[in-house]
Amino acid sequence: MSYPLLVLPFLALTLAATVATARRPRFGQRMISSALAAIALMLLTAVFDNLMIAADLYSYPAEHLSGLRVGAAPLEDFAYPLCAAFLVPAVWTLTERKRA
């Protein structure tokens, strides 16, 4: 299985959960916060993935990648921090109890 196909279920789940919270209070504020968190997480991913790949701590088989890279880091690595930044607040919102 290729890495781009592997991230698709995570992206789909994140999108579905985020859209499900669209009518909840503070949706716009949550999206701004999630976007800022995603930017920070992806910057950290760019820095540390490149450092770990440069240190030869791990590598990816080229035949399983899309071929798009940010430095030495494959683009697919950035899907996980993106999903985390949006999915965690969406799940939190969907599972919180309504206030009296």
Describe the structure.
This is Lycopene cyclase domain-containing protein. It is found in: Membrane. This protein has a two-stranded antiparallel ribbon. The protein has helices spanning 3-20, 27-54, 79-95; strands spanning 69-70, 73-74. The longest helix is centred in the middle third of the chain and has 28 residues, at 27-54. It starts with a helix and ends in a 5-residue tail after the last helix. It is elongated, with a radius of gyration of 16 Å. 63% of the residues lie in helices and 4% in strands. β1 and β2 form a beta hairpin. It contains 3 helices and 2 strands; from the N terminus they run ααββα. The chain has 100 residues and is mainly alpha-helical. It has a domain at 32-94.
Quote the average pLDDT: 90
Rg is 16 Å
Number of strands: 2
Proportion of beta-strand residues? under 5%
What would you call the structural class?
Answer: mainly alpha
pLDDT under 50 segments (min length 5)? none
Report how far apart the termini are. Answer: 48 Å
Instruction: Report the helical percentage.
Output: 55-70%
Order of strands, widest sheet: 1-2
Please provide the ordered H/E string of secondary-structure elements: HHEEH
